[in-house]
Specification:
ten-stranded mixed β-sheet; four-stranded antiparallel β-sheet; Alkaline Phosphatase, subunit A; alpha/beta; 526 residues; 2 domains; globular
């Protein structure tokens, strides 16, 4: 056993102690007639398949159903026309790992294990340790649906436990896994490998550091100097291919597929033929020396647009495969993003109006960092071309899908099922408030809440611990009903509401076992 695996397992045991201290593939070779007969007789229990598609660092303004004018996303537009567009659905957090943890556990970041990006290891293949793992007793979305009798798969980015840890997907409720374990590896869309289960799955790419730069003296306006950063085996296409294969293989019983694309997160990379579709866009080369120091891109605007359109094509392939196997009418598909868009890697978010009317981006708890483009399609259950104004968040997904699957959600979660708002049947319960906390790697923190007030407005309160030692920073207060862009701070006009917001912020969290994820950790340590 090599040293990396030994150290990784020791680290897993350490985190475990800290936390506790505070369906076999079936092949059919029938002709079209017998295939149709098979589909008509499909699984004795007729519960729907569930596909949850998550993308990475996509803003609410990045796709056509939310007003995008430049990037073409016809399949997502079709999904909205045939289903539902959410207007007030929120990410679990404003960066990857805690947002995905909220999705998996049904707990917001004031109660969850993972409250920030806690990185282990490095970017090199021989130093791939991943992120802080979920502990073994975690009741994940995958485990809940497994218990309900669903076959489960994660295809794509994980980020909640690296190689050889107890956080890997196959130990957290997924019968099958194919994709990225370490989200640092996902900074490169042409990596040397992905993972299948706990096994290394090689790709046809030479290793490339995901934070490479143009060499000294290179002319950034010469397209030839970017050739050394190109590879052939595009990981995002691998994810689509494996997803459609999985649908075909598991079509005979209810399945849950969590399809988690790593795009359009930096680095900005896509196949040349995809980028060519946006060659008409004005562009400025990105040399890799700023904005997070990601892999250089000769045409960053065209490349980011191509990445989003490529995802859209993948979603089209998923819908085509569902229709091919007669599953289209009995499959719920939900689409969302893990957090707001990022300028990293040379992304020009202002050019694309990526956060639409909203203030803020990735790493902000303003609306642009957490209000997500979210669509749902379920023929016969969700009305076509419908709008959902219900206020919901990632931690609501677990109880919603559990209810649909006939499973049982854990008791100690923050989520509320939004199934009634999907189907229009039944009484939709509402949150009194939604809560987020974000812990930046630089030692600063922020908190935000949405407060329910059916008569007087949609209130949003935030505060920022901008320097080490901050104990009681001022509250910012916005009425989203009148001011969705959060331009006018009303805190001085509503002192009672400010006091209420502070109380809710204080009572919405438990102490984290990671000291730096507690707001008083730096008190007196300036």
């Amino acid at each position: 056993m090599n040293l990396r695996i030994i150290l990784s397992r020791l680290l897993s045991i350490t985190f475990f102690l800290a936390l506790f201290a505070c369906s076999a593939t079936q092949t059919k070779n029938a002709d079209s007639t017998s295939e149709a007969r098979f589909n008509n007789q499909r699984h004795s229990d007729n519960r729907p398949n569930i596909i949850y598609i998550l993308v990475d660092d996509m803003g609410i303004g990045d796709i056509q159903p939310y007003g995008q004018k430049i990037i073409q996303t016809p399949n997502l537009s079709r999904m909205a026309a045939e289903g539902m567009r959410f207007t007030q659905h929120y990410a679990g957090n404003t960066v990857c790992a805690p947002s995905r943890a909220a999705l998996m556990t049904g707990q917001h970041s004031g109660h969850g294990q993972i409250r920030g990006n806690y990185e282990l290891g490095g970017f090199e293949d021989n130093n791939e340790w991943g992120q802080m793992p979920l502990h073994p007793a975690t009741k994940t979305l995958g485990k809940v649906l497994q218990s309900a009798g669903y076959t489960t798969a994660l295809i794509g980015k994980w980020g909640l436990g690296g190689p050889s840890s107890y956080g890997v997907p196959t130990k957290q409720g997924f019968d099958y896994f194919f994709g990225y374990l370490d989200q640092k590896q996902a900074h490169n869309h042409y990596p040397t490998h992905l993972w299948e289960g706990e096994n290394w799955f090689p790709l046809n790419n030479a290793w490339l550091h995901s934070h490479a730069q143009l060499p000294p003296g290179a002319n950034p306006n010469d397209p030839a100097v970017y050739e050394e950063f190109k590879r052939e085996d595009f990981a995002q296409q691998r994810l689509t291919n494996r997803a459609v294969k999985y649908i075909a293989e598991k079509r005979d019983k209810p399945f849950f597929l969590y399809l988690s694309y790593a795009a359009p997160h930096a680095a900005l990379q896509a196949p040349d033929e995809e980028i060519a579709a946006y060659d008409h866009l004005p562009d400025t080369p990105y040399d890799g020396k700023s904005a997070g120091r990601y892999i250089p891109s000769f045409r960053p605007r065209a490349t980011r647009a191509a990445m989003i359109s490529h995802i859209d094509k993948g979603i089209g392939a998923v819908f085509a495969k569902l229709k091919e196997h007669g599953l289209d009418e009995n499959t719920l598909v939900i689409f969302s993003s893990d957090n707001g868009p990022s300028f990293e890697g040379g992304a020009d978010l202002k050019f694309f109006d990526s956060n639409a009317e909203f203030r803020g981006y990735k790493r902000d708890l303003y609306e642009g960092g957490i209000r997500m483009p979210t669509l749902a399609r379920w023929p016969g259950k969700i009305a076509p071309n419908s709008i959902n104004d219900h206020v919901s968040a990632f931690w609501d997904v677990l109880p919603t899908l559990a209810e649909i699957a006939g499973g049982k959600a854990p008791k100690n979660i923050d989520g509320i099922s939004f199934l009634p708002s999907l189907t229009g049947a039944g009484n939709q319960k509402k949150h009194e408030h939604l809560y987020w906390e974000f812990h930046h790697f630089n030692g600063t923190h922020s908190q935000a809440i949405r407060i329910r007030d059916d008569k007087n407005g949609d209130w949003k309160a935030l505060r920022f611990f901008k320097q080490k030692g901050d104990v009681d920073p001022p509250i910012e207060l916005y009425n989203l009903r009148d001011d969705p862009a959060e331009k006018t701070n009303l805190a001085s006009q509503y002192p009672e509401l400010v006091r209420h917001a502070k109380k809710v912020m204080r009572n919405s969290r438990t102490r984290s076992f990671i000291d730096t994820w507690n707001f008083d950790y730096y008190k007196g340590k300036r």
